[in-house]
Design goal:
alpha/beta; seven-stranded parallel β-sheet; five-stranded parallel β-sheet; 14 helices; 16% strand; globular
Amino acid sequence: MKIALSGYYGFDNAGDEALLSAITSSIKKIEPSAEFVVFSGHPQRTAALHNIRAVHYMKPWQLLRELRQADLLISGGGSIFQDVTSARTLPYYISVVALARLLGTPVIFYAQGVGPINRSFSKFLMRLVANHVNLITLRDRDSALFLEEIGVVRPPLVITSDPVFSLEPEDTDQVAMQELFEHSGLDKQTVVGVSVRKWTALEGYQNELASLLDDLAERGCRVIFIPMAYPEDLTASRKVMELMRHDALLIDKHLSSKEHLALIAHLDLMIAMRLHALIFAASRGIPFAGISYDPKIDAFLKLFDLQALPKYYAEMKNEIEHLLSNQSMQAKIEQQASEMRRKSEDNARLALSLLKRKA
């Protein structure tokens, strides 16, 4: 049984690498004989990190050969079907799907978060191709409503949850992160994690966030910046740190997705723009606040009855104080995360059901 995977893999984004780990491990639990090939931006890096065969995502003849031999194409998870970061993103990923369907290979959109899709041509491509895939699972209801709105009506739409909820760190990852905390003197402090990224439309929020973090430092919290996309997020992290009056710690090293998961489990609060920083926190029962730069952040927060962190200091401060003082918040997050974990495991079962139908 051979399964091909198409997504934003091989680019050192902890969230997307976590998705790849979660998808393959969930499928292996059910079907140990499954073999994978990943369409990756850096095949050697992907093969070394995940112990999975990989080919370059921009070599058409290799993709054609792999899709012809595959029993299933998994497209996603993540947010690959959007046209905000680049006009080329959606056409590329949807073309891989179209090629698979032309070759007769079953396709599942795997726990996708769809949108934003603003261009008329992008919506046309999405509607045209998505109506010919075999099954679509989605990580939130907003994605389902959006697909229905643009006319994707043929394949079943099943709302599950992000695959990363099923991911667990290895014992070695937990030991390594415990040692990092002890070496940095963080093990006896209240620790607030921060994950930021560059996003032009939010320029100016850094001053407000820096003031908030200074307040937290003054009440005895230790602030650590965790770049989820390394080294891409280092610049955005340092920009906020330079605006702070108090010292903060920057994790200036490349961590695997499971190391990130083990690290975030030690936090008392996570403040993040990166979606998977929020998901990692939720999956470990850590209170979190999301800085919204994209509808996917709002959609995720909605699952926990939360709203995005306000953009201005005074409102930010009120929200964070509420999170830190709310004794029932952790229990509520843990309960919801348990339900999300159960739903995330449905993705693998549904994907493998397509193989049984093919057989």
